[in-house]
Amino acid sequence: MTSPVTVGLLHPGQMGAAVGHELTKAGVRVLWCPAGRSEASVRRAEQAGLDAVPALGQLLERSSVLISLCPPTAAEQTADAVREAGFSGVFVEANAISPERAERIATDMSAHGARAVDGCVIGPPPGGSVSTHLYLSGEEGKVAAVAELFADTAVVPLQLEGPVGAASALKMAYGSYQKAACALAGVAQALGRAHGVDEHLTAEARRLAKSPLATPEYLKGVAAKAWRWAPEMREVSHSLVAAGLPPEMAEAAATVFDLWAQDKDDQDLPLPHILDQLKRD
């Protein structure tokens, strides 16, 4: 069944392309703009069945719903470009940003004729054995319309009661634990390696609990994604400050992820190399 709604996707990274693919499989036409994008982005978009349009303006003219899935640092820049181009449809702000930034973006969109829905994606890219959840908050009718697009797909839409900012708050709360735990595991494994006790450390972690500490090979994937996770942890820090909570753990995790930024998207580096990257000269 073909959906009458056309969706614009900004910009198809690993998660975005997979989310877009779920929509195309459900009969939704998904557009994207390759201008300024990498060859890897082009390949992902083609494999996901997305339709390319040459310019952002054309993308906006043909789309009634826009989904923004990009690194947190680019969230406002992306929203500004959409707003300045005169988009008047539904803008789904699905980036890992603080509630305050989500609210600011939504307010700016509303002032220029668009409506914003706050979203957060929790889980791996859809299609695997673990489900991918898309939480949505904001104006009830708009939230329901976006959720309907993902009905019967591998992206499970979950509607939150609450305004724009609620979905982002959930993402910040989840990320504050899940990503910080990965940073802690990396530091612990590096310390164990420095003293030659890393195998015992891993064995104890496996005996006592399942965690990133118990599966050090998982850290190779963490290092490859750390360039995106560092700015997300800084968004967590802003959220904690706004809530009157201590931000130091989130800031420390961001510092650890910064040390892995040079390993961007490289899933094949050996674990000893990954752990040695955390050493300071």
Structure description:
With 281 residues, this protein is α/β, with parallel strands linked by helices. The chain has two domains: 6-164, 3-Layer(aba) Sandwich (Rossmann fold), CATH 3.40.50.720; 169-276, N-(1-d-carboxylethyl)-l-norvaline Dehydrogenase, domain 2 (Orthogonal Bundle), CATH 1.10.1040. It is 52% helix and 14% strand. The chain contains eleven helices and eight strands. The protein has helices at residues 14-25, 39-48, 56-62, 75-84, 99-111, 140-149, 166-194, 198-208, 218-242, 248-259, 271-276; strands at 6-10, 29-32, 51-52, 65-68, 90-93, 115-122, 132-137, 155-159. The chain has an eight-stranded mixed sheet with strand order 3-2-1-4-5-6-7-8, with helices on both faces. β2 (29-32), α2 (39-48) and β3 form a beta-alpha-beta unit. α7 (166-194) crosses α8 (198-208). The protein is globular, with a radius of gyration of 20 Å. The termini are far apart.
List the helices and strands and how they pair.
Elements: E1 6-10, H1 14-25, E2 29-32, H2 39-48, E3 51-52, H3 56-62, E4 65-68, H4 75-84, E5 90-93, H5 99-111, E6 115-122, E7 132-137, H6 140-149, E8 155-159, H7 166-194, H8 198-208, H9 218-242, H10 248-259, H11 271-276
Parallel strand pairs: 1-2, 1-4, 2-3, 4-5, 5-6, 7-8
Antiparallel strand pairs: 6-7
CATH architecture of the largest domain: 3-Layer(aba) Sandwich
Radius of gyration: 20 Å
Strand content: 5-15%
Helix content: 40-55%
In one word, what is the shape? globular
| Number of continuous helical runs | 11
Kindly name the structural category. Answer: alpha/beta
How many structural units, i.e. domains? 2
| End-to-end distance | 59 Å
